[in-house]
Write a structure and sequence with these properties.
Strand order of the largest sheet: 3-2-1-4
Radius of gyration: 18 Å
Distance between the termini: 46 Å
Helix content: 25-40%
Strand content: 25-35%
Shape: extended
Structural class: alpha+beta
């Protein structure tokens, strides 16, 4: 029987400067992928204006993207448990702001 290597806990220090801490509001996301990475563009489109601006682009590996999706699903469940279920309109996603 082979012995499993011990997993060492790694403490990562994350820096968050003031500007980044303010965050940005977005109301549209576009997702694209290749075999090796996912690209997510977070966009703000002003009401009554057909133009939008990419406020952030995140490029990530498929493994990390799947972990992100799982973390979002977990947090959405916790949110709905606390504040109630979010009902989405029956409009297809590409018509309400999340394109894929």
């Amino acid at each position: 029987m082979s012995k499993q290597p011990e997993k060492k806990e790694v403490n990562v220090q994350i820096q968050l400067d003031e500007e980044m801490a303010q965050g940005v509001y977005v109301n549209l996301a576009m997702v694209n992928h290749t075999e090796t990475e996912f690209t997510i563009d977070f966009i703000y489109v002003q009401p009554q204006n057909p133009r939008g601006k990419v406020r952030a682009r995140v490029i990530s590996s498929p493994n990390h993207t799947k972990r992100l999706i799982n973390a979002l699903l977990d947090n959405m469940q916790k949110y709905e448990d606390k504040f109630g279920k979010i009902e989405l309109p029956s409009t297809p996603p590409e018509k309400i702001g999340f394109l894929h």
